[in-house]
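DM from R.C. (forwarded with permission)

"hey, sorry to bug you on a friday — could you get me a structure for this? deadline for the figure draft is monday and I only need the backbone to look sensible"
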Amino acid sequence: MDKQLPLLCYFEGGVVPLNEAKVGILTHALSYGTACFEGIRGYYNEKHGQLYLFRAREHYERLHESSRVLIMNLKFSPDELVEMTCDLLRRSGIYEDAYSRPSMYKASEVIGVRLHDLKDELYITVQPFGNYIDIDRPLNVGVSSWKRIDDNAMPARAKITGAYVNSAFAKSEALLNGYDEAIMLDNSGHVSEGSAENLFMLRNGVMHTPSVTENILEGITRLTIMTLLREELGIPVVERTIDRTELYVCDELLLCGTGAQIAPVGSVDHRPVGNGGVGEVARRLQSIYFDVVRGNVPKYMHWCTPVHTEVRRPAKAEHAVAVASK
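My reply, with the result:
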């Protein structure tokens, strides 16, 4: 593009430059983690000259569910929220892979732990965004000493900001111990998920994944992969309880999520998975997945929302705000 465009966001009822959106230090969500959020990826297709939001409506349906858990009133419908996000991307001039972070948060500046009788606000940010983790090589992961949050303590199926401290403990433990990522167990000792990813395990030609009762986030990428495995690769998928040591003897293992996309695992607790490389199923799944999210597969175009009303192929925009890593 021939000029700088500021990244815009929706904040407190209007559209403003991202660097002007501020909250006070007494904001309830900052003090107590009383907010929920989504992460929505946009994929740019150079051939189409178009940016596609992937499964945006499903993400906003989940934001409504998380808001309900936190006793919040999200007044916009999922379809309205999708259009608001597309508008921000258009007005920010983003013609490259992107990421949107919408959040509902308790905006009252008060002291006191509760969920009711507080002001709810919405923000939506957009920014250029690349890979969250390296997905071109197998990850080395370790089972964390930190257990996954339990639904009766902190609802795992809601994307609550305060709950991600649980993930942060596990991720930092993994990185400081020389791993790329963590695998978290539930309180019964069964496999739940990664620090911020769902998990799939291939054994004897069947793909297994923890059920929604194992305190997992009910991932949208997880549902996408289940569909692609069954319909495109002809691989059966079973949702069931998985024991830790099954990870040591499985044929393939992968993590998935909006941020992580599809990340193959090469070892667990210093034990190789398969031959220690990127497995055949993971490689095929990655190829299909990236064709789908970039709008190259007509069968799944209903998952892809085109952003720009005018398609074009400009050089990447130089934005006024630096891109955060997450």
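R.C.: lifesaver. The two ends are 24 Å apart (CA to CA).
me: no worries. Residues 11 and 123 are 5 Å apart (CA to CA).
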